Amino acid sequence: MSIDQSTAAKVAKLARIKVEDDALPALASEFNTILGFIEQLNEVDVEGVEPMVSVEPMRLKRRQDVVTDGNQQDKVLANAPDAREGFFAVPKVVE
């Protein structure tokens, strides 16, 4: 597949990128280079290869999924401008 200047201009318009007319040949060339790399990747035989997330297989560290109150009430309320009885205190807005 080859990208010409009119196709490069259409792609730039769809991407909402302003490209001057004199820059279109270079843009079309870059698109063709990228498509060439993609064609090279398509030639690679990946049959039976599992997808990987990382180069080195690692398991994520996990913790027990237990419900707690966090035991951080004092830390959370430390930044509150006004706290009473273990809660944020806010001005009354309803009469």
UniProtKB/TrEMBL annotation:
Give one Pfam family: GatC
The UniProt entry, under PANTHER family, shows:
GLUTAMYL-TRNA(GLN) AMIDOTRANSFERASE SUBUNIT C, MITOCHONDRIAL
Coiled-coil spans are none
Q: What is this protein called?
A: Aspartyl/glutamyl-tRNA(Asn/Gln) amidotransferase subunit C
Q: Where is the signal peptide?
A: none
* Any one of the GO BP annotations: glutaminyl-tRNAGln biosynthesis via transamidation
**Which organism encodes this protein?**
Ruegeria profundi
Family per UniProt?
Belongs to the GatC family.
Keywords recorded for this protein, A-Z = ATP-binding, Ligase, Nucleotide-binding, Protein biosynthesis, Transferase
Gene3D superfamilies with a match to the protein in the record:
Glu-tRNAGln amidotransferase C subunit, N-terminal domain
Subunit organization? Heterotrimer of A, B and C subunits.
- Annotated HAMAP family: GatC
Out of the domains of life, which is the source? Bacteria
Describe the task this protein carries out.
Allows the formation of correctly charged Asn-tRNA(Asn) or Gln-tRNA(Gln) through the transamidation of misacylated Asp-tRNA(Asn) or Glu-tRNA(Gln) in organisms which lack either or both of asparaginyl-tRNA or glutaminyl-tRNA synthetases. The reaction takes place in the presence of glutamine and ATP through an activated phospho-Asp-tRNA(Asn) or phospho-Glu-tRNA(Gln).
